[in-house]
Amino acid sequence: MKVIIIDDEARSRKGIANLLKLSPVEIELIAEAEDVQTGFEAIQKHKPELVLLDINMPDGSGFDLLKKFDQINFKIIFITAYDEFAVRAFDFSAIDYILKPVDPAKLMEALSKAQHLVEQENISLRLNALYANLENNSPENKKLVLKTAESIYLVNTSDIIRCESDGGYTRFYLIDGKEIMVSKNMKDFDEMLNGFGFYRIHQSHLVNIKYIDHYSKAEGGAVVMKDNSTLPVARRKKDSFLKLLEMI
Asked: Both 27 and 124 in a single domain?
């Protein structure tokens, strides 16, 4: 892969360049840039396959740079020192990032993933989701990018009724009746949606709290959702879940 590093810190660029030499993926570092303008010019001139892009730079942000392009024809790995809230926006938007200081193992993992991307997979859609998530400080109505074998969906978290584990897959149930099966396990979405109005009541079930209709004591405890689904509550989750309901 032909790679460009765009970072305003010379020391950071040098460190990343040295790490690239250790990559199991065949890498050719074709250029470096230190800000939005020189980065834009370098991409136009060298036409990289992958850009390692810092977010905060003296003359703007990495996002400002990307918005200069009518069409993005390269893969992107963001390099960021953002706080936890902002970093979760990257997770929601299915966009690769590495935290500063750069962890060599994380960089190698991101490079390997970038190498196996066959196409850009609607990079514009994912970037628009990222911009929206970074601007929206409310825990509700985040934009979640869901990738299936055939399509990429942009879903508002407020439209998700519940998620159900199906082996290594997760099935999403939406308020419009649509179901989306994603090749990602429940644990990833549990961690991602934690603190955003969702609660994992069972190993196989993650629910949007606002769509709970009522709790039934029958058969050891179950949740009835507003889509009329009845879901078991794990015994070890029962006490904490009932306390949560009392707080709503």
From this structure: yes
Integer Cα distance of 9 and 6 in angstroms: 9
> Are 146 and 184 in contact, with CB atoms under 8 Å apart?
no
Total-model pTM? 0.84
Structure tokens at 199: 């609660």
**By three-state DSSP, how is residue 75 classified?**
strand
Write down the mean pLDDT value for the chain: 92
pLDDT digits (tens, 9 = 90+) for 75-121: 999 998 877 778 889 999 989 999 999 999 999 999 998 887 755 56
Give the SS3 label for residue 109. helix
| Cβ–Cβ < 8 Å for 181, 169 | yes
Give the domain extent around 108.
Answer: 2-134
φ, ψ of residue 112 to 5 degrees: the values are -65, -40
Q: What angle do CA 31, 36, 41 make, to 5 degrees?
A: 50
Looking at residue 119, what is its pLDDT? 55
Angle (deg, nearest 10), helices 104-115 and 10-20: 60
**Burial classification of residue 39, based on how many CB atoms lie within 10 Å of its CB (0-12 exposed, 13-18 middle, 19 or more buried):** buried
SS3 161: strand
CA separation for the pair 199, 207 (Å, rounded) = 5
Distances (CA, A) of 49 to 18, 31, 38, 99, 115: 19, 12, 17, 21, 9
Whether 65 and 106 share a structural domain? yes
Q: What is the CA radius of gyration of the chain?
A: 21
